[in-house]
Amino acid sequence: MNEPTRQTPETSADTAGGVPWIHGIRTRLFVAFALLASALTLLLSFWIEREARGELEAELTAKLHAVGGSAIAALRPSIVPGLLSFTPAQAGLRTYQDARRELRDLASRTEVKRIFLADLEGRSFVDTDDRVAIADPLPELRAHRPEMRALLEGKPSAAPLFTDVDGEIRKSGYLPVIVGDDVIGLIGVEADATFLGRVRSLRNRILAVGLVGFALALLFAFFLSRTLTRPVDRLVEWTRFPAAGDLSRPVPAAGQDELGELARTLEKMRSHLETQDRELRAMISGVAHEIRNPLGGMRLYTEMLAKDSSLSDKHRDRVGKVLGELQQLSNIVDEFLTYARPASPVPEPIAVHTLMEELGQWIAAEAEARSVTFETDGPQATVEADPTHFRQILHNLVGNALQAVEPGGRVRVAWRSTATQAGRDSRSNQGRMLEFFVDDDGPGIDAAVRDRIFEPFFTTKIHGAGLGLPICRRLTLLNGGRIEVTDAPTGGARFQLTLPEGRQV
After folding, report:
1. H or E element: which one contains 176?
2. Residue 6: pLDDT band by 50, 70, 90 thresholds?
């Protein structure tokens, strides 16, 4: 047995079978619910903030205009023209002081920050703000050009929110002062709008509640997706068994919905196929037994004839050929019986290196005669399988590889231990599998026939019944494993055999 430098087989258990999680229905459902919850939370928070802010600002504007109307009534429109003609030197006049006191009383009663009377040029003449003198210009009025145009048309207006020099959020409302048909001035009212800024904190609270809702939505989406996809996962997992030729496993129940109906229909189909398969095996077994008895008699008489000393050498050669053909027929009958009624497996730990030594001795003569190099490579390990079944599987696979390579070719058996998803984090052998790779450097298997090589009675060889590989697959399934065929790195065929790893012996 040669021990070349170890090479890691290329096929990985992580990529064997199944749908990638990122493409799964569960992932798509989870992402869809998460995105929907996020979008609804954000849209709801901004919509509530915008609506609440708009309603509160409109209500504040209405209050400003109402206070402005009261201010005009308190000043009496008839004396407004006189007030708008005052100079700073007239600040001590009783008329001016009375007007200012009226505005201050009104501001106190209505809880607004400021009320002022200004002309159309943007100068304040009566103002509750002590910092503003008679005829002082008001920069904010010059900045509020759209609002001033509305006033000139005799319409009330309101400026956007602004922050004053003290850092407080304010809002101004303007009302035109009309004498006769002419707009001669305006009343401005400022109020504290800090509470509108708190609407933003309301949005933040809504967002916080939304985040909690988002987390709950994710949790709901997770459980809902699991509820919806778990039956699908079970059905997908089950389909791998009939795809590998194992019809003995019933379809898992999937509830009373459409998936349940699908599962029940698949179970009917599986039961029907299993019945047909069982009847076919019974027929094959019966035919094989019927052929074996007369075949045994023919072989016995032919052997007796071969021992007859009166036979010439020419006839003795012919009898030898008949015996060879009878042996070939006997082998085919044995394959029929093995395929139809394989013995129930009795698994036990098998030392892989020991079995590989036996395998090397078994093929040594044929390999030497054809100048074929046989190599093995792998760690010390045990496999949990029926010894007879495991030997027959390896003999068939290695025997086929020897027949496939040209003289001077190479056949290599490598193995490695891998963990299934269930046992990936376990330190014990539970959930671990051994992968065997039987590689050759022959011509390989044509892609057109690769999907059929495990079919009973399908063969590309001149001799044989086409049951060698179907027997390998059936014995592998009986021992809880699987077998696949791919291209070998050496250019030939690769048969990948996966069986449970056994406990150390």
Report:
1. strand 169-179
2. very low
CATH assignment, 27-197: 3.30.450.20
Q: So what's the pLDDT on residue 438?
A: 93
Both tokens of residue 192?
Answer: 């504290």
Answer whether 416's CB lies under 8 Å from 9's CB: yes
Per-residue pLDDT, 186: 92
The domain defined by 258-337 carries CATH number 1.20.960? no
- CA dist 176 and 152 (Å) reads 8
- Mean pLDDT, range 342-357, rounded to an integer: 85
What's the pTM? Answer: 0.46
3.30.565.10, 3.40.50.720, 3.40.640.10, 3.40.50.261: CATH of 345-500: 3.30.565.10
Taking the C-alpha atoms of residue 258 and residue 471, their distance in angstroms, rounded to an integer, is 37
What does the pLDDT read at residue 351? 92
Domain spans in the chain, listed from the N-terminal domain onward: 27-197, 258-337, 345-500
Whether residue 284 contacts residue 339, with contact meaning beta carbons closer than 8 Å, is answered with yes
User: Quick one: which of 498, 266, 247 has its CA closest to 383?
Assistant: 498
